Automatic annotation (TrEMBL):
CDD domains linked to this entry: WHTH_GntR
Gene3D superfamilies, per database record: GntR ligand-binding domain-like (1.20.120.530), Winged helix-like DNA-binding domain superfamily/Winged helix DNA-binding domain (1.10.10.10)
One Pfam family recorded for the sequence: GntR
Domain HTH gntR-type: 9-76
This protein's name: DNA-binding GntR family transcriptional regulator
UniProt keyword terms in alphabetical order: DNA-binding, Transcription, Transcription regulation
Lineage, top ranks: Bacteria, Pseudomonadati, Pseudomonadota, Betaproteobacteria, Burkholderiales
């Protein structure tokens, strides 16, 4: 895990960001032990911001802090993932309807640009980059709807879903189906078809959790079902 702190920002939030990214990318796999002293040395900080970062990540369900300072990356909690997914789907179905009615041309152009970027990343099999671009596609929708703080809430709750997605995305045909789903969302919004936009979002946000059993078979030690 390579990370250089920005001296103009507080250390703890940066440690949170770095550790969350490493957990979501599976660089820090479920079950791996996290040593505060080692992390402090790696980040070049005292143990206090590391402790604060781990507490924050434990609140998000991404790490488990046990007695005597033993800390582990959590396994992927499928019930928690389902709750986060339900929240996100409910929000985005309404956002899609709103944007179909109120969007402007700049927003549509931004979505098209992001979709083209995703297609390029998929062609290069850059799965981590592809997932980041996927998130950006959806973040743009929240921002355009005037709901950026809701996106922040969704991100904080989606750690388990994000890790499931990373395990699922290499499946044959998954990037192609994601691109097709995003194109359907974009087309419906651009056409100002609110019903089609909602339907496209509902279909899109059903894929990964519908494949939990398959993911569990391939990675039984990573999931709590």
């Amino acid at each position: 895990m390579n990370f250089t702190l920005d001296p103009t920002r507080h250390a703890a939030p940066q440690v949170v960001e770095a550790l969350r990214a490493a957990i979501i990318s599976m660089e820090l796999a479920p079950g791996i032990a996290l040593d505060r002293a080692e992390l402090a040395q790696q980040f070049g900080v005292s143990q206090t911001p590391v402790r604060d970062a781990l507490i924050r990540l434990s609140e998000e369900g991404l790490v488990i802090i046990r007695a005597q300072y033993t800390t582990q990356v959590s396994r992927i909690d499928v019930p928690a993932a389902r709750e986060a997914h339900y929240l996100r789907r409910s929000i985005e179905i309404e956002i899609a309807r709103q944007l179909a009615v109120t969007h402007d041309d700049t927003f549509i152009a931004d979505l098209r640009t992001q979709l083209e970027r995703q297609a390029d990343l998929a062609a290069r099999k850059d799965f981590i980059g592809f997932i980041a671009a996927d998130k950006e596609f959806h973040r743009l929708m929240y921002v355009a709807a005037g709901l950026p703080r809701l996106w922040a809430v969704v991100v904080r709750m989606s750690g388990h879903v994000d890790r499931l997605r990373l395990l699922h995305i290499p499946t044959v045909g998954k990037t192609e189906s994601t691109l097709a789903a995003h194109l359907a969302i974009l087309t419906a919004i651009a056409s100002r078809d609110a019903d089609a936009a909602q339907h496209a979002v509902r279909d899109h946000l059903s894929g990964t959790l519908a494949s939990v059993d398959e993911i569990h078979k391939r990675h039984p030690d990573f999931l709590i079902v």
